[in-house]
């Protein structure tokens, strides 16, 4: 295939709302040492993209956007021996710029995907699925019989987590907003589903656990749920806050953890858990295994044209989406 010298990508020149995202023509250079040129077949949409765009996680401007994608290797830079032209690959790490038709990308951050997993599924599962992997297998190692509370369980991360947690033998309590989203969480296998819009979810968790509380809370919502989640934990329970969908978590005094029952608090990131090639492969291989076996099914709830990324992000922030969301070049 002839490789173009320019391509289309979504970029932003200032932080702000979805309207700052622009569909632009950008040059495509030959791949540098250690890089490959990718033809993206699908791009993943994630909440972290909105944090970059909005300035919560500052990046140098102007900038591309997006961390996740899947596609085909079309050219190799100097020194690349682990891949060949034609390989099917996926990725979910910096540098930003997955919202693009073509791009150059470091070879050592790419993962080969088997033919059994299509490009749309690969783009929808990498960041969210590897996030679930490190959360439930390494941040707090979920064991059979553990009681788990997972917020936003109808979303991309949550829908993968519910299925994987059940496979590990956990009792899963999921929260979601509205009857439709709650029905989705129930269909994924959650033992209990709480509509946070209609119920006192802290009180309900206590009822479901006979007042004992859960072993671990996984919270990607942030400001609205993090502090109240402490009251859902049993003594020496784990509060794992990994996202800011409702805004940044307020400051937490260490003494509060003592007062709430000698709790553990952690704020992990996928970057830290996949910083080495060994950890990246461990996480990706575990995810590919459960998806290939059908243990975890990836729900692509919404698909947008790549040029409509602003609308996709707007819908994501308005909580109009369920499951994973992908952008198609």
Textual characterization of the structure:
By secondary structure, this protein is of the alpha/beta class. It has two domains: 6-126 and 276-328, Medium-chain alcohol dehydrogenases, catalytic domain (Quinone Oxidoreductase, Chain A, domain 1, Alpha-Beta Complex), CATH 3.90.180; 143-267, Rossmann fold. It has helices spanning 47-54, 119-139, 156-167, 179-187, 201-208, 226-229, 254-259, 270-273, 277-292, 309-317, and strands at residues 6-12, 22-27, 35-45, 63-64, 68-76, 88-92, 102-106, 111-112, 147-150, 171-176, 192-195, 214-219, 233-241, 264-266, 300-305, 324-328. Helix 2 crosses helix 3 and helix 2 (119-139) crosses helix 9 (277-292). It is globular and about 65 Å long.
What integer is the average pLDDT? 96
Number of domains: 2
Number of strands: 16
Radius of gyration: 20 Å
Structural class: alpha/beta
Helix content: 25-40%
| CATH topology (fold) name of the largest domain | Quinone Oxidoreductase, Chain A, domain 1
Termini separation comes to 17 Å
Largest sheet: 7 strands, mixed
User: Could you name the ranges where pLDDT drops below 50 across 5 or more consecutive residues?
Assistant: none
